[in-house]
Amino acid sequence: ESYQLRFSTSQVNPNEPVVKVMHSFADRVKERSKGQLTLTIFTGDQLGPQKKVNEMIKGGARVLSVTDYGQLSQFVPDMAVVAGPYMFANPDEAKRLFTSPVFGEMSTRLEQQGLKLVMADGLFGVRHLLASKPVRTPADIAGMTLRVPPSPIMLETFTALGARPQALPWGEVYNALQTGVVDAAEANYGSLAGSKLYEVRKVVSNTAHQMMFAAFVTSTSFFNSLPADLQKILLEEGRKAGAELTAATVASDKAFAEELKKNGVQIVENVDVKAFAEKAKAAYAKVPGLTPGIYDKARQALAH
Amino acid sequence: MSMLQLWLPSVLMLALLALQTPVTWSMAIAALSFFLMNMGEMPLANFAQQMAEGTESVSLLALPLFVLAGCVMNASGITRRLLHLAEVLVGHMTGALAQMCTVLATLLGGLTASANADAAMLSKTIGSQMVQRGYGAPFAAVITSSAAIITALIPPSIGLIVYGFLAEASIGRLFAAGVVPGLLLAAGLMLTTHFLATRRKYQPQRASRATASEITQAVIDGLWALSIPVVILGGTRYGIFTTTESGAVVVIYVVLVALFGYREIRLRDLPEVLAESVRDSASVMMMICAAAAFGFYLSWQQVPQAMSGWLAGTTTNPVMLLLLINLVLIALGTAIEGSAALIILTPMLLPLIEGAHIDKVHFGIVLITNLTIAGITPPVGGLMYISSQTLKVKMGDYSREIAPYLAVMMGLLVLLSVFPQLSLWLPNLLYGTGGVQ
Amino acid sequence: MQTVQTLAPPSGGQEEAVPAAGASRAGRLLSLRRIDEAIGVACMLAIVASIAWGVITRYLFPQPAAWTFEAAVIAFGWLVFFGSAACVRWRMHADVDALVAMFPPKVRRVVFIGNWLLLAVLFVVLAAMFAWQGVIAHSIRVVSLDIPRSVVYAPMSVASILMLVQHLLLAPWRDGWQWRASSESAL
Ligand code: NA
Ligand code: NA
C-alpha cells in the first residue's frame, strides 16, 4: 500500500531554512520508501494556521505539521518549558534536554493526546527585541509596551522583566508599531527581516530571550497504522532533518543579520543577558498548567 | 485520487445553487461531501472545525462591530444628518447619493483597512437611504460593494499587509503604491455612475444649490456625526487603538452620541438594534464560514495550483504574463474568496513574477485589485454578499447591475498591468528607486 | 420599489415591517422563540466589552489584559452560529431562484421539499459534528484564557440544534409545501 501525507507549514518563503529542510526530508522519505510514502508540501498556512492544523491532526487527519513548543503546550502544558525564557545557553545544551527522560515522558503524553513527534529538535531561531532604542539591561524595557504572541510563557516572561506585554495577532504588528499602539516587538532574525518590521523600528537588541525549536508532528493513529519500516524511515529522517535545520538556521541567521544591517538596522550586541535571564526566571512559576518542579527537572536534565 | 473526488464538490455546489438551496448551505453541503469522500484521510468532525474556522479571525472581528455601528447610526438619526449634509453639498448633482457613496468610500478608505467592514458600513448607511429614495436596491448594492474595493487600495489595507508578508515586499512602498490606483478606481466608478445616472434620469436630490446658511445649519446639526470619522482617524493614526479595536471604540462612541448627543433613541430601543446587527452579521459571516470550508477542499486538492501551473509554460513577456495571470485570477475569483486566493496564490505566482522581472510592488497592486474585485463577482464574493444581504437584493439582479462597473474595473486592471508607473510613481517619489526590492 | 420583507411567517405572503420596527411582530427578544437572538446579542455585547477592556487596560493599568482578543473571538463564533439560527427563522439565508422559477409548479414543489429535507439533515449533521469536534478539542487548552477548547465547539452544536428547531418551526407542510420565490431578503 502507498501512503500520501500532506506536509504543512506557516512559512511562505521557499528560501527559509525550514522550507528547504522540508523539501529534503520529503525527498529522502520518498526515495528510501521507494515511493511508498510521499509528502506534498503546503507552505503559507494553505491548510490553515498551526493551531487549526494541529487540532486536525489530533482528530486523526493525515497531515504532518511544522509547529513549535508554544503551540504544543496547548496539548501538553509542560512543553512550554522548552519554549521558556533563557532555558538553554546554546543548541548543544538543548540537545541534552531532547534526549533526556524528562522530555521522553512529555512526548509520550503528547502521543497519548494524538500527536506523534517525527522531528523534535530543529532550531528555528533565537528571538530578539525590536525597538526604537537599544535595550541592554532589563531597566531599558521597564514600562515598554511590547507586542508578544498570544502565549502565556511569553506574557509572563515580559511581565517578569518589567515590560508591558500586549498580545496582538501577527498581522497587526506592522500597523501597531507604525501608529505607536505598541513601542516594540520581538521575533527571530528571519521573521524580523521577512516581515519588514524594520521599516518602522530600527534597533534590534540581541536579548536572545527565547530559543525556538521547530517540531514535525503527525497523527498518532496514522503513524501507528504505518508498516514498521516506514515508521523507522520517518523517525530516522526526522532526526536528520532536526540536525540539518539547526545548522541551516545558524547559517541563515548570519545572513539575515547582514540583511537587517543593510536596511539601516542597528544591531546591539552587548546585552546583559545574565541580568535578563535572572529576572525572567520568575515566569516559570506563573505559567498556568505547569507541573510543579518541571522547570528544575528540565534544568537538571541539561546539566548531565 | 480520482476525477470524481477532485471535482464532485464543485459540481455539487453549482447544482445546489441552481436548485435554490441557500448559498451558504450549498457551499457547506459541497464541503461536507468532500469530507465524506475523504474519511480515510481525516475525521468527519474536521468538517465542523472548518466551518468554525471562519470566525477565528481577528480581522473579521471588525465586521460585526462596524455592522453594529451602522445599525445604531441608522436607528438614531446620525446617518440621516450625515446624508443631509451630503445633500446640501452635492444634492443638486445627478445621482448625488451614489456619487456621495464613492466619495465617502474614498475618505473611509483612508481610515479603515478592511473592504468587508466598509461594505457593511456603506450599505447599512448610504445604501439603505438610496433604496428609500428610489435608486433601486440592486443599484445601491452594486455601488456600495464596488466602492468598498477602494478601501483595499488606499492605505491602510489588510490585503496589502498580507501580501507584503507573503511576498516579502516593503509594506510602506505597497501602501504608497495603492494611492494612485485607488483614486483612479474612485474616478472610474464616479464616471460610470454619472453616465448611468444621466441615462436613467436619476433625479438630483434638490432643484438648486444649497444656500450658505443652509450649509452652515447642516454642518452644525451634523457636528456630532462628523466627529465620528475624526475619532476613528485620530485614534488609529495616533496609535491609541488598532484597526480592529477601532470597531469597538466606534460602537461605544456612536452609542454615546446617539443616547446623549442627539437623543433620538432610548436605551430600551437598543436590544432590537443589537438583535438586528446580530442577524445581519450572522447571515454574512455564516456564508464566509461555509466559503472557508469549501475553500479548504480547494486547498487540500490543490485546485489553484493546477491552474497556476498551467500559466508557467505559456509566456515570459511581462505584460502578456500579467494579463494572463489576471484572466486566470478573474476566473478563480468568481468561485473563491479573495483572501483565501491571496494566501494560496501569492507564493505560487511569485517565482513567475520574479522570472519575468516584474516589480513585486507593482504586482502586489495588480493582484490585490484583482482579488478584491473577486469579492463582487458572482456567485462567490464577500462584498457582494454583504451589500446584497443588507439591502435584500437577489443575485440575478445584482449580476445585471454590476456589469458596467465590472467592465470599468477590468479596464483599470489592464491599465494597472500595462503601466507599472501608475503604481510605482508615488513609492519611487517617496522612497527612491533603489534599496529594498 | 418593493417594501422590504424580512419576517416571513409560514402563513406569510403579505408585506411585513422591517426588522427593527417589526420587533413586536417577532415577539419579545427575551423569549424562548428568540433565545438564539438573545444569546447572539449577549455575544455582541461581550465582543464590544472585551475589546474595549483591552484598550482601557493598555492605558490605565500597569499590565494590559492579554485575554481580550481570545474572548472576543470565541464570542464571535457563538454570535455567528446562534445568529445563524435566528436567520433560519427570518429566512435570511439567501438563495437563487432564477432557474427553479422557470420549472413547472409540480417540479418546483419537489425541489422545495427536497431542499427542506436536505437542510434538516445538514443541521443534524452539523450538530453531531460539532459535538464530536468538542470531544476532540476538550483536552486542548485555549492559549490565554486557559480553558478547554471544547467551549468553542460545544455551543455551536447547541446552535446547530436551534437551527434545526427553527427550520422545523417553519412548518412548510402547513400550506401544503408551497414553493416560495427567493424572499426579498435573499440575494
Ligand atoms: Na484602506
Ligand atoms: Na467572486
UniProtKB/TrEMBL annotation, chain B:
Q: Which UniProt keywords apply?
A: Cell inner membrane, Cell membrane, Membrane, Transmembrane, Transmembrane helix, Transport
For molecular function, the Gene Ontology terms on record are: transmembrane transporter activity
Which is a Gene Ontology cellular component entry for this protein? plasma membrane
- The positions making up the signal sequence are none
Where exactly are the transmembrane stretches of this chain?
12-37, 58-76, 96-115, 135-154, 174-197, 218-240, 246-262, 282-300, 320-353, 365-386, 406-431
Regarding the membrane, this protein is recorded as: Multi-pass membrane protein
**Residues covered by the TRAP C4-dicarboxylate transport system permease DctM subunit domain:** 11-422
Q: Fill in the subunit field for this protein.
A: The complex comprises the extracytoplasmic solute receptor protein and the two transmembrane proteins.
List the NCBIfam families hit by this protein, alphabetically. Answer: dctM
Report the protein name in the record.
TRAP transporter large permease protein
From TrEMBL, chain C:
Q: Does the keyword Hydrolase apply?
A: no
Q: How does it sit in the membrane?
A: Multi-pass membrane protein
What does the similarity note say?
A: Belongs to the TRAP transporter small permease family.
User: Which is one Gene Ontology cellular component term of this protein?
Assistant: plasma membrane
Role description:
Part of the tripartite ATP-independent periplasmic (TRAP) transport system.
Could you say which residues form the signal peptide? Answer: none
* Domain Tripartite ATP-independent periplasmic transporters DctQ component, chain residue ranges per copy: 47-168
Q: Which GO terms describe its molecular function?
A: transmembrane transporter activity
One GO biological-process annotation of the entry reads: C4-dicarboxylate transport
Against InterPro entries, the record matches this protein to:
DctQ (IPR055348), TRAP_DctQ (IPR007387)
Q: Which organism is it from?
A: Ramlibacter pinisoli
Oligomer status and interactors: The complex comprises the extracytoplasmic solute receptor protein and the two transmembrane proteins.
Q: What is this protein called?
A: TRAP transporter small permease protein
Q: Which subcellular locations apply to this protein?
A: Cell inner membrane
